[in-house]
Specification:
Low-confidence stretches of chain B: none
Structural class of chain B: mainly alpha
Order of helices and strands of chain B: HHHHEEHHHHHHH
Helix content of chain A: over 70%
Strand content of chain B: under 5%
Oligomer: heterodimer
Strand order of the largest sheet of chain B: 1-2
Low-confidence stretches of chain A: none
CATH architecture of chain B: Orthogonal Bundle
Distance between the termini of chain A: 44 Å
Distance between the termini of chain B: 54 Å
Shape of chain B: globular
Number of domains of chain A: 2
CATH class of chain B: Mainly Alpha
Number of domains of chain B: 1
Helix content of chain B: over 70%
CATH class of the largest domain in chain A: Mainly Alpha
Largest sheet of chain B: 2 strands, antiparallel
Strand order of the largest sheet of chain A: 1-2
Order of helices and strands of chain A: HHHHHHEEHHHHHHHH
Mean pLDDT of chain B: 88
Strand content of chain A: under 5%
Largest sheet of chain A: 2 strands, antiparallel
Radius of gyration of chain A: 21 Å
Largest interface: A-B, 45 and 44 residues
CATH topology of the largest domain in chain A: ABC transporter involved in vitamin B12 uptake, BtuC
Number of helices of chain B: 11
Shape of chain A: globular
Number of helices of chain A: 14
Number of strands of chain B: 2
């Protein structure tokens, strides 16, 4: 159960927030956005942090999920839950089709290919006006209801997104600590070595790519029901980059790091609003500085600092004891 | 039909020349320092925007404005190397990608601050009387773009193959430690590579600024196009990157004219994906094997 320790802390925070700050804009509105981003970042972290496969096109799967839900519920009157499943099925087949050729690539080439995929999906969303509503987007998307419990307030959305986030975190932690999780980390270290150990690297990479895409698709569906409006802007190249930044900012190969990165990157623009026209510039500067000075990410870097400090203290007190004996 | 295609080809070569310059800048930085510089497009924007600002609002003659704005961009490129890339030496691919993305957002933020969201254009270098070739027409500026682009490419080729400085930069890209051991000042060569690449970006921006309009956001798409052109031609080969740029320009222009202008960007990226799937080292690159 040790690997779930962080999970209990996260659960406590998620549960406590609405009680500590009832009716607070930052909890019921911004935190919901942060929760969705955290779901996406955790899924991308499985692919990027653990399996070591960069993706600059994760927003594509988020978009496919969101638009599947939006189109099926508004144009065809489908039940939202059925639309979510259909969106995930579509995402699954798209991800499965592109996974093999894309994951054969490495480094900058992999980055470019996933980037291209993201841009192509975004252009299809903008241009496929008959279905997607084009650049203006699609509105009037119905909200969700769970056995008659209609999710129609900010607080209720907080509960839904919070629970899904916790589920995704448990899922991710369980995968990482399973046999397939170890296989993922092995191929991150060295693909050749992993293959020598009898790991089917192609199948493992494909599986984690499809899983990450599926989670993103689910997040997309939730996003479109929560916003009741979608437009291609939300699924652009910039958003993919933002997701990568969340993962790296918190600390690669750490599920809670991804959550932390998502929370920071969602709240940062809200806080930077006070700087008005300086906002974009400051955001860029923070991004650069963090990566230059804390390349291993906030959570990992912070942990290391604490460990170093504890070690130093232990050494200092140890030295005193030795002097006493002498 | 033939005249129409000729028109598309002329447009394609003009756009392709811009892509080629951006792609060449990408390839130079990539080869010199193993960094994919996502701020490459911002060089284009800074060059064009500062030329416009200097010539329009400060009343400088066009040639002086162009020279000063190229110098400004070179300064920005060198500052990027010195203050953002050099301190993070040895960082992973993802980290350097995010640093350059951060830099591009930062530069875009400054441009937004200085010039707002408005769209600007530079005056044409030598009039706007169209030249007729059959049924197709060409602006004098198109010739400026093609000629200027060709000149820059030849200049870069000469620099890398026939000057000591250029060969020293190449040596750093082959083996940094070895270059250092034979007495090459590696950090200065890095500055030269970034400066040169910024100069290419700025020139591309200034050359097309009279034809296409420029705003603080122009750099984003151009940077991505330059990146895909470099991949298309093969990142390891600067002249391949130039060919990739021209090819991408032609493909896009033909696709826009013959298929659909809305999907022209998508078609460019689809071709890029196909090349990556079937020939990952690029059309003109050498196939490489993994070292275990």
């Amino acid at each position: 159960m040790r690997y779930l320790r962080g999970f209990f802390i996260l659960t406590a925070i998620v549960v406590a927030m609405p009680f500590l700050f009832p009716d607070n804009y930052y909890v019921t509105v911004v935190a919901v956005a942060a929760g969705l981003n955290a779901i996406l970042a955790v899924s991308l972290n499985l692919l990027m942090g653990y399996a070591g496969q960069i993706s600059l096109g994760h927003a594509a799967f988020f978009g496919i999920g969101a638009y599947s839900s939006a189109i099926l519920t508004t144009r065809f009157g489908w039940n939202p839950w059925l639309a979510i499943v259909a969106g995930m099925a579509l995402t699954c087949s798209v991800a499965f089709l592109v996974a093999r050729p894309i994951l054969r690539l490495k480094g900058h080439y992999l980055a470019m290919a996933t980037l291209g995929l993201g841009i192509i999906v975004n252009i299809l969303l903008v241009q496929g006006e008959r279905w997607t509503g084009g650049p203006d987007g699609l509105g009037d998307i119905p909200t969700l209801s769970i056995f008659g419990w209609i999710v129609d307030s900010d607080l209720r959305w907080y509960i839904v997104i919070g629970s899904v986030l916790l589920l995704v975190v448990v899922l991710a932690q369980n995968i990482i600590n399973s046999r397939s999780g170890r296989a993922l980390r092995a191929l991150h270290g060295s693909e050749v070595a992993a293959e020598m150990m009898g790991i089917n690297t192609t199948a493992t990479k494909t599986a984690v790519f499809v899983l990450a895409a599926l989670i993103a698709s689910l997040a997309g569906s939730l996003f479109s029901h929560q916003q009741t409006f979608v437009s291609p802007e939300s699924f652009s190249f910039f958003f993919s980059i933002e997701l990568v930044t969340m993962v790296v900012l918190g600390g690669m190969a750490s599920t809670y790091g991804a959550v932390l990165g998502a929370v920071i990157l969602t709240f940062l623009p809200e806080l930077l609003v006070v700087f008005e026209e300086f906002e974009v510039m400051i955001f860029g500067a923070i991004l650069m500085l963090m990566m230059i000075f804390l390349p291993q990410g906030l959570l990992v870097g912070f942990n290391e600092q604490i460990r170093k400090w504890l070690l130093q203290r232990a050494r200092a007190s140890g030295g005193e004891q030795r002097r006493d004996i002498a | 039909m033939f005249d129409q295609i000729l028109q598309f080809l002329l447009t394609g070569v003009t756009v392709g020349a811009t892509y080629a310059l951006v792609a060449l800048g990408f390839a130079i930085i990539y080869n010199a320092s193993d960094v994919v510089n996502f701020a490459q497009g911002e060089f284009v924007m800074i060059g064009a925007m500062s030329a416009i600002a200097l010539s329009a609002s400060n009343g400088l003659p066009l040639w002086l404005a162009i020279i000063i704005s190229i110098l400004i961009t070179v300064g920005v490129g060198m500052a990027l190397q010195r203050f953002a890339i050099a301190p993070a030496r040895g960082a992973s691919v993802v980290t350097t990608i995010i640093i350059t993305i951060g830099a591009s957002i930062f530069l875009r933020g400054i441009a937004l601050l200085l010039w707002g969201k408005d769209i600007f254009a530079l005056p044409h270098f030598s009039g706007e009387t169209p030249i007729h070739i059959g049924e197709a027409t060409l602006l004098p500026q198109n010739i400026w773009v093609m000629g200027g682009g060709a000149l820059m490419v030849i200049g870069v080729h000469y620099f890398f193959n026939h000057t000591t400085q250029g060969k020293a930069v190449l040596a750093c890209s082959c083996n940094r430690t070895a270059a250092h051991l034979v007495g090459i000042n590696v950090s200065r060569m890095m500055l030269i590579a970034y400066g040169l690449s910024a100069m290419l970006g700025a020139s591309a921006g200034i050359l097309v600024a009279p034809i296409t309009f420029t705003s603080y956001e122009t750099g984003v798409m151009l940077g991505l196009k330059g990146f895909s052109a470099a991949i298309l031609g093969g990142m390891g080969n600067p002249m391949g990157a130039v060919a990739g740029g021209l090819l991408l320009g032609l493909i896009e222009s033909l696709a826009a004219g013959l298929i659909s202008s809305g999907y022209k960007d998508a078609i460019g990226f689809v071709i890029l994906l196909l090349v990556l799937f079937f020939r990952p080292s690029g059309l003109f690159g050498k196939a490489s094997a993994d070292r275990v």
